[in-house]
Write a structure and sequence with these properties.
The chain is an all-alpha fold. The protein has helices at about 5-25, 30, 50-65, 75-100, 105-120. The relative contact order is 0.17.
Length: about 120
């Protein structure tokens, strides 16, 4: 993946993360797609701070570092990839164990693939 594609993806991932949270907080029917069956809807809110700091913030920070060719850009990108990997696996196991909330790993898997591709080729 070239530098422009990596920058584009990282900025898109950060922006899409913000949009996802707006939809989760504003639209109960959307939120229901991501909550495990039987779990209270507010359990999803536990992801807000890690998402904001690691996935959203990490994506924007890594993009900024890549754009400015900073030496910390690659570590920031791998930090973000690790956060996306952890979240993806957590969502996958939650869906598998609960039998629902499959929208979460369905959205996270492509994000993980693209973020890892950025990290491996940057």
């Amino acid at each position: 993946m070239d530098r422009v594609a990596a920058l584009t993806w990282l900025c898109a991932q950060g922006a899409l993360g913000i949009l996802w949270w707006i939809l989760v907080l504003a639209w109960p029917l959307f939120r229901a797609l991501f909550v495990a069956p039987g779990a209270p809807p507010f359990t999803l809110h536990a992801y807000a701070l890690p998402d904001a700091a690691i996935i959203i913030g990490g994506s924007f920070a890594a993009a900024l570092g890549l754009r400015r060719a900073r030496p910390w850009a690659r570590p920031a990108l791998w930090f973000t990839a690790g956060g996306v990997a952890y979240a993806t696996l957590y969502c996958l196991m939650t869906a598998a164990l609960s039998g629902g909330a499959w929208a979460a790993p369905a959205l996270m898997a492509p994000a993980l693939a693209l973020t890892l591709l950025c990290a491996l080729r940057s």
